[in-house]
């Protein structure tokens, strides 16, 4: 489990168990696919023949095909480079000149290393046919000029390394075909001036290096170049190291520290860009402002989250609007709420609770023991039917309620309906002090995992109405149902 392994191509050592299958490679010299019929001939595209003095590797399904010709003193790109090669390491050789169509037909090549190979010139269409190329390393050579034809038709290229050459001139059309280019290294060359429009087509560019070039201190050049750099600070990773030179030999100063007075006649247009103190100050103010705003938003969000229930209740009490609560489609039920209580608490229910809920702008239709239970029908069955016919069950929980068998049945029925419907239909009102040890286990668990309303709370009525179902507001008070023919009232059992 602690065995590490690595590869020969600059990849870090990782656990053997985490190594992808594509990294397990086998060396080969010649391979001919079973369906290939030209393996007996010298020119055969489907025969994989490793170039002389090179080493080749492949994975099991031949999705990875690596050709390693590093530092083999090659003066030309190997003619027998396998057509299905996916990575070619040709670095450290002495090519001097890359001729046209050197890689024609290598349509699967994704990585090409030509760095440190004494290359002075790249001919037209050198990379023609590399339709899948993603990474191209040409750093560490002796290139002095790019005429614009070198990287034609490399539409998939994402990384191009041209640093550590002797580039002096780069044509404006050099990178125009590289629409997917993400990384471009141009540092440590001999570039004096450059037209920033050269990068106009590289819309995917994320990283550009420009330092260690003798940039001109000419005001005409800097007037366009430096503002462009400052407007692309996320792109130009080494802008703080950019330095200009007066005559390509005498260094001037870091551009980030340059003074607009050194460019007489251009101070007006350069001042906004050439005063780093103002830039830093503005960035500092912006960062502090954004940080303070973000901190304030976080604090307000935390406070609102901690008091979200009170906030929702207040908004509902003032505006009648519920936030983040789904409206239940149960308006077809006969009652808005069934009131479950002990007969010992009847005075509180009749004098305090019922009048406030049945009268006023919000008038609820309640089901009560003494008023709505028909006489002569099984009490247990009536309780179950009444709870099922109600949108909510309001339970007045007290010491007397805990000791009542009928009340326990009412809670069990309401709790069963909550579990069955997966909706918060049970509203618990704590009336008086209650000993936790006397509670039914299901009731104790319900109180721990759900909110309840306590009599005496300053927001008691607001919280209770928020827990009740939505009803239409009326202007005329609903009459209490005192004209029922017969009433029944279950007696509490000890």
Automatic annotation (TrEMBL):
Gene3D superfamilies: Ribonuclease Inhibitor, Toll/interleukin-1 receptor homology (TIR) domain. One of its GO terms (cellular component) is plasma membrane. It comes from the Eukaryota. InterPro entries: Leu-rich_rpt, Leu-rich_rpt_typical-subtyp, LRR_dom_sf, TIR_dom, Toll_tir_struct_dom_sf. Residues 333-468 form the TIR domain. Its main location: membrane. The keyword Secreted does not apply. It is a single-pass membrane protein. GO terms for biological process: signal transduction. It holds the Pfam family LRR_8. It is found in: Membrane. GO terms for molecular function: signaling receptor activity. The chain crosses the membrane at residues 283-306. Keywords: Glycoprotein, Leucine-rich repeat, Membrane, Receptor, Repeat, Signal, Transmembrane, Transmembrane helix. The keyword 4Fe-4S does not apply. SMART domains: LRR_TYP (SM00369), TIR (SM00255). Belongs to the Toll-like receptor family. This is LotoA. The gene is LotoA.
